[in-house]
Specification:
This protein is an alpha/beta fold and 529 residues long. It contains 18 helices and 20 strands. Strands 14-13-15-16-12-17-20 form a seven-stranded mixed β-sheet, with helices on both faces. A six-stranded antiparallel β-sheet has the order 8-7-6-11-10-9. Strands 3-4-5 form a three-stranded mixed β-sheet, with helices on both faces.
Length: 529
Amino acid sequence: MDLFDLDDPARLDDYLARLASGLDPRLGHGHTPTVDLRRIAPDPKALAQIPGRAARRLHGLPLRRHGHLLAVAMAHPDDAESRQSMGFLTDCTVIPFAADPHQLTVALADHYDRQDDVQIARDLGLDAGDSRNEPGSPMEMERIAGQAPIIRLINEALADAIARRASDVHLRPGEHHAELLYRIDDELVPVRRFLPALLPALVSRIKVIGRMNLAEHRTAQDGRTAFTLPDGRAIDLRISVLPSIHGESVAIRLLDTSQGLRDLGQIGLSARDRERIDDLVTRDHGLFLVCGPTGCGKTTTLYAVLQALAKQRINILTIEEPVEYRIDGIQQMQVNRPAGFTFATAMRNFLRHDPDVIMVGEIRDRETAEIAIESALTGHLVLSTLHTNTAATAVTRLLDLGVEPYLLRASLLGAMSQRLVRKICPACREATTPDPRIAGLLGVPADATVWKGRGCAQCESLGVRGRAAAYELMVTSPGILPLIHAGAEADRIHATAVAEGMVPLTTTAAAMAMRGEISLEEAFRARTD
C-alpha cells in the first residue's frame, strides 16, 4: 500500500478538495494517506457528524467534511465494516486516513470524552472542573449512582467489554483523568478517559451493583453480581475496589459461564498426553495437581477433568474460592472465611460425606496439604492447584509445606504445569524472521520462518486473538519416586521426567511458534527454563 503523509491542515484540505473535484487519480486505487493527529485538529463541524459513542465503537475520528466527503482518521483504514457504518450514520462517502492507534485514542478522549463528560457532570449537578476525586455523603452518592447517565456509562462499558472479549474491566484513577481499560488477550487496552469529577459517581454505581458499602473509601472491598446481556446471557462480575492516592480504583472480572467451560479435548493436549491424563484421573485414589501462576488457566483445566469424571456414577465434591463455573452433577461449595469455612475445614467434612473425587481450589498451606494427602491415601481421587513454575517444583513445594516425603511418594499421581499463550490473529498473520538471540535460547534454527500478527481491527491492534495452553505433564513414575525425599532437587526430578518422555513447557511453546500458532516472542515469554 502506497502511504504518504498529510501532516498539516492545509495539505489535508487540499487533498479533500482534489478528491471532491476528481482531480486526484489515486482515489479508489488502494492509496491510504496517513495523518499526524498531533498536528491536525478535527473540525467541530466534522465531529458533530458522528456521536462520541459511535466514534469510540468504530475507532474513527472525523476530521473534515467537504461536500459529500467525510475524512476520518482510523487506526485500521482497511476496516470496511466500520467505514460502512460511519457512511450510514453520516450519509457521506467516508475517506479513511491511517492514524497511529495511540494518537487516535488520545484524540478521541480530547475531542469526545471531555465534551460528553462535561455535559453529564452538568446534568448531575457536579462541578466538571473538580479534580479532587472526593466523594460526597453516602446519601448523595447513592442518589447520583442511580441517575440515568451514570447507569448508562457503566452498562455500556460492561456490554462493550464483553463484546470485545475482555476478561477484565479496569477503572483507574489518575491526577488529571480516570481511565477505562479492558484486558483483552492478557493486554490492557485503553478505551476512554473520564473527567476526575465523574470518578466517585462511577465507583459508587459499581459499589451499588456489587452490594458494597458506599460510605467506605479507606479500605479494600470485594463484591459480586451478574450482568444480563440483551440475548439473555448472564455474565458473572467479580468486583474489587481499592483506595489509591487519586481515588478508588476498580477491577471487574468478567466470567461468561455459558462459554468458559472446556472439555479435555479442547485444552490442547497431545494424543499421548490425553491418554496419560485419562489414565491418571480414572484412578480411585491419589493426588493430581495443576500448577502455574495466577491466570494461567489452572481452574479451566481442572473443570475439564471434572466434566469428564462427572459422566461416571460417582460423588464429586469441590471447595473453591470462589465457584467460577457451575457443573451439573457435581456438589460445589465456596469458601466462607468469616464463617470459618476454609479449604481445610471443608475437606475435613468432605471425608464424612462419602466422596469419590474431591477438588480443592488451591493448596496454599500445610494444613490443606496434609488433609489433601490424607484424602488421597484413604481411597479418594484429589484434584487441586498449586502455585509453582514447573511440574517438578510441585514436589519441592509440597515438601516445603511440611508434607512427609513417604506420604507424598505414596499419593502423588502427577503434576501438570501450564501457561496461557496468546495466539496469532489469523486476519493479520504474516511471516517474519526470528530474533537470533531468542531463536538461540529456544533452540529454533536462525533461518526458520516464524509468524507474528501485524495488528488489525479484528484483534484491537494487538496482533493476537485468543489464547491457548502451553503445558508440561509429569507422571510420578518408578524413576521419579526415589527422588522424592527430604532436600529433593527439582532440577533432578525435571531431568528424569524429560528422560522418561515429558515434553518441557518451553519446548511445547517453541513448537507452537514453529507451527505458526504463536509468535516466537510469545514462546519466549512463556518459557520456564
